[in-house]
């Protein structure tokens, strides 16, 4: 055949250590139909400070692959919530082959067409809290590239018609495809009139959605005559690929005919006629609203175009039950309810299943959680030991001919089983990141006996059915936050847990903080701000009223900010979180600013206003940036150094003048402040945050108490200054004139020189 190669790439993204699914990087690809091979080229490189990160440590990178929806991953081996089904995915770990670059390759032969998702992350780190901009951070960038090779002009088989083929000696196989519409209960592929040097040296392989693989459903035509391969319960609205290949060692040409027959369960006693659009192909099933299933009888054999007739056996046990649709009601993103007509209570008769369909939109609905809930009305059982079984299958309903079977799986289908009875009347199922398309729910009622389950007699069970799509499982509970994430044009939701809780729904409490621990951490962070009371008292006693007001402001907002910033349930917010955070950061930096200005013995109010404006601007730009916060502090220290130097030069003596001031106040205060900065920048982690940050509060407040200068003492009563001769000025103050009581020309002014 003719091959066409397509190439897709994505922009490199920075990877993060894994904490939850919200910390992974998700990449979305689309593989076209008729693809025979897909090759992912996984490129990873390091960066540090805008250059290659040769000195960065090697950290393994894990990549997950899944078709149809994002991968549901669990690298930390946490517990999933109850009643949660975990779909499988393939994982690949990349190791480093070069100091700053590595490349991995992942090949998929005959991949399923449609959406493919790649998820990548770094291993979990120790949770160190680093100051932004303090040092150049190592960045690990990941860029996937996709190369696909697909076949064009694949021969299409039409149901009921015979296609003749002659395979040349140098050809090893022939590939065909046939479209299977809805309400098809059986696909029969047959090889006719096979002629070769050694009988019929052919092997027949069939696979849905993509070209067959070595482990696909196969049949050896040398061992079976006639060469017929039947597939029951095929996927609806998909292409089926038929591969006819020679046995190894066969050198001569082989001629044969291939035909496909489809059994249409929506038409009683009829096979699907060729080229006739049935009700199923037009999405208008004749069985909708009928009283029950329709058994298929023997049908007349179809005739080939050249008049050759051949029999196609059609089983008489195939049934096509009516499928009840659901009404889709979209409330919000990933918040969709599926309502059943004349529901939500549904009746399950004893002689036939009740089948419902839930349609999930492509791409849009795969980023949430599909929830299903069954609740049995025990009063409807009339005292019988009835169990209602539900099978949820993707793309085709599973209605077994064996009424006593309670499995939801076949050789080619895998489904989810739910059951309710009088003792367990409630059953739930959650599927995170479900594959899109049609999901079919089949409900059957069976009675438990000594010999197993048997069909019930004259008992119609009533079941409350609820199906809906939600962003997260139980909204992540009280110890998690459901986040709506986006990668390019794809939206998905994930939980971000707190207070030591983990898991897909924040339900794993193996490392959770106890209530006492949460209360202790909150009290430590809040009450440690009481250490600002001594600096406030010292400032008031020294007549530094403006500084005292700033310290009170800092103490108040730091206390309530940390009361609102707690990860657990011991939380108390008096304002919005963003307002509290801004005021806390502003108060902390303003405390440093006014303390340094006071140490410089400068009193102009313009310096305080300048500091408030500069710090507000810096915090608005980046509250966690190092230089945005350190710059104004260094500027204040520069002003203090200039003032101290000027006084030292003018007085010809070191300023401050006494050694006691240096030994008992300035040096201890500077050492305490330096210790606080070192703890904040290099020691603080997520695990020790509550007590290291409390120590930071104590040290900063204590350093302010040491560094704040004493009140300036008057140097004695000064005599009157001599009046300048010549050019001078007078300041006239007229109280009544300022009050505007009388004419200013009629009042004597009080003048002071």
UniProtKB/TrEMBL annotation:
Q: Which InterPro entries match?
A: EGF, NGX6/PGAP6/MYMK
Which residue numbers delimit the EGF-like domain?
495-506
* Intracellular or extracellular location(s): Cell membrane
| Positions of transmembrane segments | 512-532, 544-563, 627-646, 662-683, 689-708
Q: Which UniProt keywords apply?
A: Cell membrane, Membrane, Transmembrane, Transmembrane helix
Q: How does it sit in the membrane?
A: Multi-pass membrane protein
May I have one GO cellular component term? plasma membrane
Indicate the family of this protein: Belongs to the TMEM8 family.
- Recorded protein name is TMM8B protein
Please name the gene that encodes this protein. Tmem8b
């Amino acid at each position: 055949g003719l091959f066409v190669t397509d190439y897709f790439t994505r922009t490199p993204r920075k990877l993060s250590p894994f904490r939850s699914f919200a910390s992974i990087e998700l990449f979305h690809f689309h593989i076209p139909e008729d693809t025979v091979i897909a090759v992912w080229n996984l490129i990873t490189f390091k960066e540090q400070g805008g250059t290659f990160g040769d000195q960065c440590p090697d950290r393994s990178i894990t990549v997950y692959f899944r078709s149809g929806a994002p991968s549901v991953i669990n690298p930390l081996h946490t517990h999933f919530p109850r009643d949660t089904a975990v779909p499988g995915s393939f994982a690949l770990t990349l190791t480093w082959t070069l100091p700053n670059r590595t490349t991995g390759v992942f090949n998929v032969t005959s991949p399923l067409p449609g959406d493919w998702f790649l998820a990548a992350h770094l291993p979990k780190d120790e949770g160190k809290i680093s100051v932004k901009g303090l040092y150049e951070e190592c960045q690990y960038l990941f860029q996937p590239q996709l190369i696909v090779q697909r076949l064009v002009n694949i021969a299409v088989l039409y149901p009921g018609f015979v296609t003749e083929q002659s395979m040349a000696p140098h050809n090893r196989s022939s590939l065909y495809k046939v479209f299977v519409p809805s309400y098809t209960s059986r696909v029969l592929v047959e090889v006719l009139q096979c002629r070769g040097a050694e009988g019929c040296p052919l092997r027949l392989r069939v696979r849905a959605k993509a070209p067959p693989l070595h482990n696909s459903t196969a049949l050896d035509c040398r061992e079976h005559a006639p060469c017929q391969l039947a597939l029951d319960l095929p996927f609806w609205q998909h292409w089926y690929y038929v591969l006819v290949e020679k046995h190894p060692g066969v050198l001569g040409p082989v001629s044969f005919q291939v035909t496909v027959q489809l059994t249409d369960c929506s038409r009683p006693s009829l096979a699907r006629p060729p080229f006739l659009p049935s009700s199923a192909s037009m999405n208008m099933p004749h069985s909708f609203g009928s009283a029950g299933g329709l058994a298929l009888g023997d049908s007349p054999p179809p005739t080939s175009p050249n008049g050759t007739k051949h029999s196609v056996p059609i089983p008489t046990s195939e049934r096509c039950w009516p499928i009840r649709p659901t009404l889709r009601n979209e409330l919000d993103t990933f918040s969709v309810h599926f309502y059943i007509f004349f529901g939500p209570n549904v009746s399950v008769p004893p002689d036939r299943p009740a089948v419902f369909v839930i349609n999930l939109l492509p791409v849009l609905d795969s980023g949430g959680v599909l929830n299903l809930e069954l609740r049995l009305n025990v009063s409807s059982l009339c005292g019988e030991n009835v169990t209602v079984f539900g099978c949820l299958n993707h793309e085709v309903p599973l209605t077994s001919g064996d009424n006593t079977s309670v499995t939801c799986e076949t050789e080619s289908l895998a489904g989810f089983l739910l059951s309710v009875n009088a003792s367990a009347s409630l059953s739930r199922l959650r599927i995170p990141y479900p594959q899109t398309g049609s999901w079919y729910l089949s409900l059957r009622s069976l009675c438990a006996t000594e010999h197993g389950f048997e069909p019930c007699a004259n008992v119609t069970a009533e079941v409350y059915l609820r199906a809906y799509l939600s962003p997260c499982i139980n909204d992540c509970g009280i110890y998690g936050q459901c986040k709506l994430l986006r990668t390019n044009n794809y939206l998905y939701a994930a939980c971000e847990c707190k207070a030591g809780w983990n898991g897909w729904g924040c339900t794993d409490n193996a490392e959770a903080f106890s209530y006492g621990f949460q209360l202790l951490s909150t009290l430590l962070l809040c009450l440690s701000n009481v250490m600002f009371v001594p600096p406030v008292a010292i400032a008031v006693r020294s007549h530094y009223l403006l500084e005292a007001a700033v310290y009170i402001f800092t103490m108040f907002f730091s206390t309530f900010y940390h009361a609102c910033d707690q990860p657990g349930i011991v939380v108390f917010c008096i304002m919005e979180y963003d307002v509290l955070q801004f005021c806390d950061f502003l108060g902390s930096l303003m405390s440093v600013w006014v303390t340094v200005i006071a140490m410089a013995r400068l009193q102009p109010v313009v310096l305080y206003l300048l500091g408030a404006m500069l710090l507000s601007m810096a915090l608005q730009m980046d509250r966690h940036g190092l230089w945005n916060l350190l710059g104004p502090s260094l500027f204040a220290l520069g002003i203090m150094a200039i003032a101290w130097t000027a006084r030292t030069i003018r007085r010809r003596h070191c300023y401050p003048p006494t050694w006691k001031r240096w030994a008992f106040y300035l040096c201890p205060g500077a050492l305490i402040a330096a210790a606080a900065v070192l703890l904040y920048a290099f020691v603080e982690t997520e695990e020790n945050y509550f007590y290291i940050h409390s120590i930071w509060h104590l040290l900063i407040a204590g350093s302010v108490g040491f560094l704040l200068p004493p009140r300036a003492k008057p140097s004695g009563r000064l005599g009157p200054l001599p009046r300048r001769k010549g050019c001078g000025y007078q300041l006239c103050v007229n109280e009544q004139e300022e009050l505007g009581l009388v004419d200013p020309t009629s009042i004597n002014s009080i003048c002071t020189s």
